[in-house]
Design brief:
about 300 residues; alpha/beta; five-stranded mixed beta sheet; 12 strands; elongated; 6 helices
């Protein structure tokens, strides 16, 4: 009589199936439990047109790094277990001087991975630094120890900042605020009055050095109305931690209203970026030639120095 009992798969195969199913279940549980913070790799919530691309690149880089790490850790553990010395072993194990296929694999794969990472980095960086398109708004950001001045080039008005007063009841009210219109391409022209600073709006997910004697530029399109924090990200002296500012992204109507308020206060013209740290022109006789950045059509009569602090 034939037996109707089915043959059981080998125990090792059953264990592998159970382990694989457990891994899939655990992965699904972890991935579905991610909040938006985890999904963007713990980056701040980006508020520009390039934020999604930056977040995706950041998360992808960590995923691939983790995959490489898991592979390397797995190979190390495999070698530790598979080639461990047994009590019955005598003498040295067989010695291999080289293994050409493995050495080629370990050389070609990392080169390929680095090349892909480098190419993607350059591609995204080119987008982040692209200033070839015409900007709707141009802002000359002037860094100084330890605050910021803002020249609104298109509106021909300016706003001079002062260092944050940390002893004030509300220090937030003592720092300068940069106004930007939502969904408009903004080009930042960065200049410094003294030492190296870094212009960093945290939720823009990008920053750039502000270097004395050099003009740096980048452009973004803010996509969400709100107030965002900015700071200097380069150690620039004793009060570096107090070199703070806010960015208010507002509707175009409110942006124009702010420009008119500055105009009514008499803050018109181009606030000089050729000042020393004491607020004095280096060579007052020919200020235009000393400007690190000077908008087209601006001459000496348009340059303002008395508003600087």
């Amino acid at each position: 009589m034939k037996s109707t009992r089915r043959s059981q798969p080998p125990r090792g195969r059953r264990h592998r199936k159970v382990g694989f199913a457990a891994l899939i279940g655990l992965s699904a549980l972890v991935l579905t439990g991610c909040t938006p913070v985890e999904k963007r790799g713990y980056l701040p919530d980006g508020v520009t047109n390039l934020s999604k691309e930056i977040e995706d690149f950041w998360v992808s880089s960590w995923v691939w790094a983790l995959a490489v790490g898991v592979l390397v850790w797995g190979l190390i553990l495999y070698c530790v277990v598979r080639y461990r010395r047994k009590k019955t072993d005598v003498g040295l194990p067989p010695q291999l001087a080289y293994n050409v296929p493995i050495e080629i694999l370990y050389t070609v794969v990392p080169i390929f991975m680095v090349a892909v990472l480098f190419g993607k980095t350059v591609e995204l960086e080119n987008k982040m630094l692209d200033t070839s398109q015409k900007a709707d708004v141009t802002v000359n950001v002037v860094a100084k120890q330890w605050s910021w001045d803002f020249n609104y080039v298109n509106a021909k008005v300016y706003d001079a900042g002062v260092q944050a007063d940390m002893s004030a009841p509300n220090p937030e009210e003592t720092i300068p605020t940069l106004y930007l219109p939502v969904n408009k391409r903004v080009e930042f022209v960065l200049t410094s009055r003294d030492v190296i600073h870094t212009f960093w709006v945290i939720q823009f997910l990008q920053k750039m050095d502000v270097i004395p004697g050099k003009v740096n530029k980048f452009a973004v399109t803010p996509t969400q109305i709100g107030t965002y924090q900015g700071k200097c990200a380069e150690l620039c002296g004793a009060y570096h931690s107090q070199m703070l500012f806010n960015v208010k992204v507002v509707s175009e109507a409110n942006y124009n209203k702010k420009m008119e308020q500055l105009r009514q206060r008499g803050q018109t013209g181009f606030l000089s970026n050729a000042l020393d740290r004491n607020g004095s022109e280096i060579v007052p006789k020919d200020a235009a030639k000393l400007q690190q950045f000077l908008p087209q059509g601006t001459d000496n009569s348009d340059i303002v120095t008395e508003g600087a602090k």
